[in-house]
asparagine--tRNA ligase (Linum tenue), 474 residues
Amino acid sequence: IADVKGGPNEGLDRVGQTVVVMGWVRTLRLQSSVTFMEVNDGSCLSNMQCVLNPEAEGYDQVDSGSIVTGASVCVQGTIVESQGSKQKVELKVNKIVLVGQSDPSYPMQKKRATREFLRTKAHLRPRTNTFSAVARVRNALAYATHKFFQENGFVWVSSPIITASDCEGAGEQFCVTTLIPSSQEVTDSPVDGIPKTKDGLIDWSQDFFGKPAFLTVSGQLNAETYATALSDVYTFGPTFRAENSNTSRHLAEFWMIEPELAFADLNDDMACATAYLQYVVRHILENCKEDMEFFNTWIEKGIIDRLTDVAEKEFVQLTYTDAVELLLKTNKKFEFPVAWGCDLQSEHERYITEEAFGGCPVIIRDYPKEIKAFYMRQNDDGKTVAAMDLLVPRIGELVGGSQREERLGYLEYRLEELKLNKESYWWYLDLRRYGSVPHAGFGVGFERLVQFATGLENIRDTIPFPRSPGSAEF
Ligand code: 4AD
Ligand code: MG
């Protein structure tokens, strides 16, 4: 359908051509002499309006009620100019084949199902306008991400999902457990997929082949090893956090993009994050016009103008110290009180980007070292580190990054100060032992980026199968 209707004149150049459309029936309107059937194949938001006369081959299946909403069909016909005002062209059908019937219980019949309801139908929700548009924009953002980094000489590195290190040091990891039956004879299990031994016991070995292991919270430390060999690199893959936060911005499983720049400082890092965000936003504005118009009308009014500003205007930069001063000066009442040294809460972050700077993305830099991770480079003041967070309206923190501590002595001291197990970081410390270089990087939460780009209120609607406390059904 995108192939026919996606061009500049919405299919008028294809008038007279015979085409075959394969997709799912969205609506069916039976009139006395003619039937209108809207078919969608997911290639774009638009349906193909199919006009069926009783002479069309296979029409009896429409007449007898075999073809209904939700059914899959294969339709052959001629592209003609549409009489209606909703579309430029439609399909005058000469043959229709029912590929798969749809049971009357099909739950996607109702026009305006809530997004809460659709979360319980994660297997069918991609058949709705909203979720097919999200899927295409998510795909375009992933494509633009690779395109941006590839065009700028970065090498994509696959960081491991199973790891022993806790990059962020926050103890928010999921533990990996091995299921090894202690006896060869495994009988039917009462729990699907979990082997049961002969004596009836389920054997849980609480580790990864004898060693502790976790699902990664970030690929950064691994990316650093490649950045100190190949120069600029990036990762793009799933990460996991066992924080029990039921918010509209947190997932237990989310995708992260983590560039790592060699021979770079915090200013280079902030410049890269800005260029990246502007590039991917421009990409979807140019390449996902139909879907972005849909979000602009139905999800967040004015989002296209706001994203255009993001792509074109300079971002605001301020230090953490200045941000705290700004928060202390305002008359606005916050739930969490502000003082130098506190972690900025989402209400503070939103105030800064939405109210203090009128919806412009804001980069805050130089945070107190006490609230940041061990690997961040200490500033000369001895109190702050070269960290930065990029905040955007509605969401707050979209990007978190820093210049890394490249000085062996400082890094060892910091590990000791935080009582982290220095021995387990032997390989990470080696990078500072052998040809250390100033380097910096950041992490973009991919689902928060999709949320930002589409205007969706809840992060659970930005990923096909959201994982959050209590949801791992599909
Ligand atoms: O700020 P974070 O924790 O930074 C890191 O993990 C660094 N190692 C990144 C780096 O420097 N390479 O996470 C980075 C971003 C956040 O800004 C946020 O957008 C997203 O990841 N994020 C989450 N997104 C969804 N659900 C969660 N639970 C998230 N936690 C972080
Ligand atoms: Mg962060």
Q: What stands out?
A: The mean pLDDT is 93. The CA atoms of residues 280 and 293 lie 17 Å apart. The chain has two domains: 2-100, 132-171+227-461. The longest strand covers residues 18-30.
